[in-house]
Amino acid sequence: MTRATTPATSGVERARALLEEQARALAAVAGRLDESFGRALALLAGRQGKVVVSGVGKSGLVARKIAATLTSTGTPAFFLHPVEALHGDAGLVEAGDVALVLSKSGAGDELDGVLPLFARLGVPVVALTEHADSPLARAAQAVIAFGPLAEAGEIGGAPTTSTLVSMALGDALATALARERGFKEDDFHFLHPGGVLGRRALLRVRDLMHREPGLPRVSVDETVHAALLAIMAGRLGLALVVDGAGSLCGILTDGDLKRILLARGTDDLFATPVEAVMNRAPRTIDGEALVAAAVRAMEENEPGPITALVVVDPAGRPEGVLHLHDCLRLGVR
Predict the structure, then answer these.
(1) Which of 174, 185, 217, 258 gives 69 a disulfide partner, CB atoms 3.0 to 4.6 angstroms apart?
(2) Based on the number of CB atoms within 10 Å of its own CB, is 70 exposed (0-12), middle (13-18) or buried (19 or more)?
(3) pLDDT digit string (tens) for 49-98?
(4) CA–CA separation, 256 vs 258, rounded Å?
(5) How far is the first Cα of the chain from the last one, in angstroms, to the nearest whole number?
(6) Higher-scoring residue by pLDDT: 312, 213
């Protein structure tokens, strides 16, 4: 005797079939990922400003979610509606931003206004679309094309699988960017007390570091006495040692001085060249790194925790000092 099929059981079977179809589609897209995803990631990671996420209709709803996920994982982002961009919201877009534009077809009148806007402002575009040869893809500097997809559910082509795939690819970008910036699970939990995002989610080393004027530094050809005066004046517990080109070549901390005093006494110490006693491998960090990542680097330093990091530019010149005490005053740990 067979059990009659009820509306409830047939509904469960249809739901299971839809989920299985979508799972296969996601697996297929994962298998097709190539260097185009890497190029998109590099473009987003190299930006100086925010990620502007845009799309309309169902793609717009997915874009809003991706923007929220990016922000909550340490990548500043906001949603820009293509139509509203033409009615004042374009002022939110700045040089240094990167746009992430979602559109299944990669075509449509709604993109005709926003793409020229990005081009005029010099904002590069990452396209997330089904078609690699679409107008959106041709206007973009990087393209993530997930390929033709059959919409699951047999309900007239309503977006189901395509929106799922777009959202999953957005999640993949967000998590990859978070890893690039040193954002970890502990940072996420800290930044989400009670589900409320604070400004610390976007806080970078550059926002909190000590900078000129008054950055304690001495020339490599000066003495320990000069370094001690710089340490006392700077009140950061250290002096930066630089060469003639201004590049960082060492650091001397008050802790270093105490250890030297215990080891050799004061005989001729203050007349000793600072180069002879400085730490030649100071811990450094990029100004764009998250403060939370910097705190972790100080606390997990080998052979033991430290209280400051030197912020250097790409040429190796010191541009600031981040002190642990300033971070802890903000509750970043």
Answers:
(1) 174
(2) buried
(3) 889 999 988 998 999 999 988 887 878 888 888 877 776 677 788 888 99
(4) 5
(5) 65
(6) 312
d(CA 92, CA 84) in angstroms, rounded, equals 11
Distance CA 39, CA 20 (A): 30
Sheet with 308-312, strands from edge to edge, namely 284-285, 308-312, 318-323
How many whole angstroms separate alpha carbon 98 and alpha carbon 125? 6
CA dist., res. 297 & res. 187, Å (int): 13
Residue entry with tokens 């991706």: 66
Query: Across the strands, what pairs with 145?
Result: 129
Q: What letter represents residue 137's amino acid?
A: A
CB 81 within 8 A of CB 56: yes
- The two structure tokens encoding residue 291: 């403060």
DSSP-derived secondary structure letter, 200: G
* Cα dihedral across residues 184, 189, 192, 193: positive or negative: negative
